[in-house]
């Protein structure tokens, strides 16, 4: 008997020698804060051939062989490998998350958690999207979200409408493609006021990338791409409330709440209301410094998470009323010269989207995706005696297949897309109708050698019913020289149809007449970019220094030429050179625990041929400097943020042909803006107080001929600095997690 | 402006210097935390318990390490606070109501993710 027990235990012992331990767990990637299973990921015992792949739900089971170490290596194409020491974390429910390497652009992440700002850490590729740089301003909307971003500049378009525009690489925001959750959005008629259409506390994160981006989203991204992710119905806080007021009298409220109905369905509602109803004229030019605004913005989204099928859809409605112009202008009275100069913009915008994703069961790492969006935008406006009414109906559809060739080192995404833009515009007595349809097909190949090289090569071919065939090649590469040095390269082509009046309504707030001297062609450009990031260990902390250079060259560009004639803005196609060179250096470091510092400097060289002469592009700062400092006390109870931006001189649009009192200098002065905020965190509440433009810097006399707004030289568009001065604000946030 | 910037830096260094620890004790509590969400919740909520000087959860071991002022709170109180957030604290079982209010992913028996 003893003998049998001995043999039995010997057998057991031997078995144990070979298969000592069973491991189970899952491999995931984090997308927008949620775990997405990675299907077909490899899980192998370190230095062995003993391995398995994950199933449809990302799970795996593996019997460990005793002769090898108790470590697993998880790998998946396009993702960074991870080694897991099982002796440290156990053998059951081993949870592995892999970081995506596929986004090769230097993605700058401006992420906002709990509608505010916690700590932030530096960003490497798409990896840090969720833990990325957090916002430091109690931002009301998208326009304040870039305060701490060295790459994106925000400036006023004119001195009467309050419209703000972004710049990337010193190029107008028009050349940066805006996406909401990876669908092109906020285009055409939405452009002048679009930064006000996305409330700050609705956003989960923002991804900014410079240069041409992926061919998957269309041919538009010429200078860069900004993607906005809203908060998700199945992740994050259950309810959030934000109330904000500033000393000028602006009030704002935001509410969002999410509901998980069952395992599969979840929904979320967002509401935003803002009102600014106080007339101010601190610069005594008879014009309101800031327009009166009333906006209501509502959004309801749904998510379905099935075994293989994922679906999201949602509806958004926005209504906004803006009123600006002279202090004595009365909107109740007829809009004539007796009543004074008024500006009124009434906007209604409807959006609906439907996204579906289907995971292919019989082929690892393969899926089909289908994105749809319908937008209707209606605007009724007047700028003095200029009446501008327009509407836009747009549809965007994109059907994609993602899979791999031979093995998962070679992945591809291919698909077809269709976009429709239907514009009806009326400016005074002139009517334009434009119906643009773009059908396209694309193929994008992604290579990763798992070690140090990643490559994305994409092409797309589109047929535009107005401009014919358009071919868009794009290439991105990332090479890790070693652990501390990363090189990125991007090269590609982009196109864009200009909507001159819709996208430049500021020109209506002048006495100038717009004259199209020829049929406009589609804008097209090539962009080349090189980014080098070095991570240097200093003490326990890492200093990151990113240096980038981007060059954009236009083959065609729509030129708004206001340099020839004081009364006419000529619109024509580029005839000559037009380019932008942008060099930026950005350093980030945490010298003391929880004290984060960012220092950045950018030099812009942007020139365009205007009237046969290569000239510096107006309203582009020669250089930008940024200092951002943030300190969080132990246990995150207090947070202090400070931000200084230095704006170099800009060439102003030429005014030398005006009579002397109506001339402006050739260049703007150099100026700096200082913002700060203090936040106190309680268990469920946050209270914040802050100030924008603390040094109260203002541009003097922003409006030309403000005393005679119906005169020949009236112009509110020579704006290079802040119109309104210091703003002190305070607010509270309430969160239920 | 330069003054404000300098002031900010000065304040930060001051605040940093003030963080010198008084008479404190440290406790390690084994919890039923599952994911990063749990970590954030526990660290945030425990930070607002009286006497707590520092708090950190190690997700791998599920051990919550708290440094606290001896004269302000006790181990017992801190553990009770953990259960009221909805998690087990060593031998003490999570408050059922609080536990049921947690998101599905953070409730006991949920897959680690």
Q: How would you sum up this structure in a few lines?
A:
Chain A is mainly β and 737 residues long. Helix content of chain A is 3%, strand content 55%.
Features:
heterodimer; A: 737 residues; mainly beta; 3 helices; B: 113 residues; alpha+beta; three-stranded antiparallel sheet; 4 helices; 3 strands
Description:
The complex is a heterodimer of chains A (737) and B (113). With 737 residues, chain A is mostly beta strands. Chain A is globular and about 90 Å long. In chain A, 46% of the residues are buried. Chain B has 113 residues and is of the alpha+beta class. Chain B is 41% helix and 19% strand. In chain B, strand 2 and strand 3 form a beta hairpin. In chain B, helix 2 crosses helix 3. The A-B interface holds A 25-26, 28, 35, 88-89, 93-95, 238, 260, 263, 592-593, 595, 627, 629, 631, 633-637, 640, 642, 644, 672, 674, 676, 682-683, 694-695, 737 and B 1, 4-5, 8-9, 11-13, 15-16, 19, 41, 44-45, 47-48, 52-55, 60, 103-104, 111-113.
Nearest-integer average pLDDT of chain A: 87
Q: How many beta-strand segments of chain A?
A: 43
Provide a count of the helices of chain A.
3
Q: Approximately how much helix is present in the residues of chain B?
A: 40-55%
Low-pLDDT runs of 5+ residues of chain B are none
The largest β sheet of chain A comes out as: 22 strands, antiparallel, barrel
> Span between N and C termini of chain A?
62 Å
Structural class by SSE content of chain B: alpha+beta
Number of helices of chain B: 4
Quickly give the structural class of chain A: mainly beta
């Amino acid at each position: 008997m003893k003998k049998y027990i001995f043999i039995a235990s010997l057998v057991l012992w031997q078995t144990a020698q070979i298969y000592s331990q069973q491991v189970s767990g899952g491999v995931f990637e984090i997308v927008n804060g949620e775990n997405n299973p990675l299907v077909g990921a490899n899980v192998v015992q370190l230095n062995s051939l003993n391995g398995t792949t994950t199933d449809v739900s990302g799970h795996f089971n593996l019997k460990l062989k005793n002769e090898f170490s108790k470590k697993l290596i998880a790998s998946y194409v396009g993702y960074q490998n991870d080694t897991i020491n099982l002796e440290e974390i156990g053998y059951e429910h081993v949870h592995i998350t892999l970081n995506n390497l596929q986004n090769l652009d230097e993605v700058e992440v401006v992420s906002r958690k709990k509608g505010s700002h916690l700590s932030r850490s530096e960003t490497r590729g798409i990896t840090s999207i969720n833990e990325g740089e957090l916002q430091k301003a109690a931002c009301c909307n998208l326009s304040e979200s870039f305060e701490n971003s060295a790459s994106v500049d925000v400036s006023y378009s004119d001195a009467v409408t309050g419209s703000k525009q972004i710049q990337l690489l010193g190029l107008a925001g028009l050349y940066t493609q805006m996406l909401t959750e990876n669908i092109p959005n906020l285009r055409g008629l939405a452009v002048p006021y679009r930064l006000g259409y996305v409330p700050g506390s609705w956003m989960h994160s923002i991804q900014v990338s410079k240069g041409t981006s992926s061919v998957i989203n269309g041919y538009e991204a010429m200078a860069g791409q900004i993607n906005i992710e809203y908060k998700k119905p199945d992740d994050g806080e259950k309810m959030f409330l934000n109330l904000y007021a500033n000393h000028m009298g602006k009030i704002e409220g935001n509410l969002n709440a999410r509901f998980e109905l069952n395992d599969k369905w979840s929904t979320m509602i967002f509401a935003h209301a803002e009102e600014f109803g106080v007339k101010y004229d601190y610069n005594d030019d008879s014009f309101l410094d800031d327009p009166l605004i009333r906006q209501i913005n509502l959004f309801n989204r749904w998510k379905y998470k099935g075994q293989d099928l994922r679906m999201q859809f949602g509806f958004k409605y926005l209504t906004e009323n803006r009123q600006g112009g002279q202090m004595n202008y009365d909107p109740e009275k007829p809009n004539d010269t007796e009543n004074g100069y008024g500006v009124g913009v009434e906007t209604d915008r409807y959006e609906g989207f439907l996204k579906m994703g289907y995971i292919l069961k019989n082929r690892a790492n393969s899926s089909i995706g289908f994105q749809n969006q319908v937008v209707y935008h209606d605007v009724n406006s007047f700028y003095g005696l200029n009446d501008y009414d327009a509407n836009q109906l747009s549809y965007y559809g994109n059907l994609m297949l993602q899979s791999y060739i031979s093995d998962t080192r070679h992945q591809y995404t291919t698909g077809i897309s269709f976009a429709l833009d239907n514009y009806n515009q009326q400016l005074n007595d002139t009517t334009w109708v434009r119906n643009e349809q773009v059908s396209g097909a694309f193929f994008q190949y992604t290579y990763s050698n798992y070690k140090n090289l990643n490559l994305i090569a994409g092409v797309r071919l589109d047929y535009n019913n107005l401009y014919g065939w358009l071919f868009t090649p794009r290439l991105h590469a990332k090479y890790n020289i070693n652990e501390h040095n990363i090189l990125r390269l991007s090269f590609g082509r982009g196109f864009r149809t200009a909507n001159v009046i819709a996208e430049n309504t500021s020109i209506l707030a002048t006495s100038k007449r717009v004259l199209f001297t020829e049929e406009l062609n589609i804008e097209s450009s090539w962009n080349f970019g090189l980014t080098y990031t070095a991570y240097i260990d200093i003490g326990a902390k890492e200093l990151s220094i990113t240096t980038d250079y981007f060059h954009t060259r236009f083959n065609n560009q729509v030129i708004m030429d206001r340099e020839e004639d004081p009364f006419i803005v000529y619109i024509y196609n580029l005839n000559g050179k037009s380019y932008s060179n942008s060099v930026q250096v950005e350093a980030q470091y945490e010298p003391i625990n929880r004290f984060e510092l960012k220092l950045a400097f950018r030099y812009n060289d942007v020139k365009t041929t205007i009237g046969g002469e290569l000239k510096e592009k107006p309203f582009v700062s020669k250089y930008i400097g940024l200092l951002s400092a943030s300190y969080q006390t132990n246990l995150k109870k207090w947070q202090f943020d400070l931000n200084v931006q230095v704006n170099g001189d800009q060439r102003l649009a030429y005014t030398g042909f005006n009579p002397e009192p109506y001339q402006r200098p050739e260049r703007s002065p150099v100026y700096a803006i200082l913002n700060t905020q203090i936040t106190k965190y309680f268990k469920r509440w946050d209270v914040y107080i802050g100030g924008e433009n603390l040094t109260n810097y203002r541009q003097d006399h922003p409006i030309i001929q403000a005393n005679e707004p119906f005169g020949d030289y009236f112009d509110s568009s020579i704006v290079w600095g802040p119109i309104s001065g210091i703003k002190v604000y305070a607010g509270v946030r309430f969160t239920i997690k | 402006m330069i003054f404000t910037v300098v002031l900010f830096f000065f304040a930060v260094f001051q605040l940093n210097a003030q963080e010198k620890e008084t008479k404190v004790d440290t406790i390690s509590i084994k919890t039923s935390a599952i994911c990063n969400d749990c970590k954030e919740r526990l660290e945030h909520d425990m930070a607002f318990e009286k006497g707590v000087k520092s708090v950190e959860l190690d997700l791998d071991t599920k051990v919550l390490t708290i440094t606290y002022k001896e004269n302000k709170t006790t181990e017992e109180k801190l553990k009770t606070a953990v259960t009221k957030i909805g998690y087990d604290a060593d031998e003490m079982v999570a408050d059922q109501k609080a536990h049921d209010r947690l998101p599905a992913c953070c409730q006991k028996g949920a897959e680690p993710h």
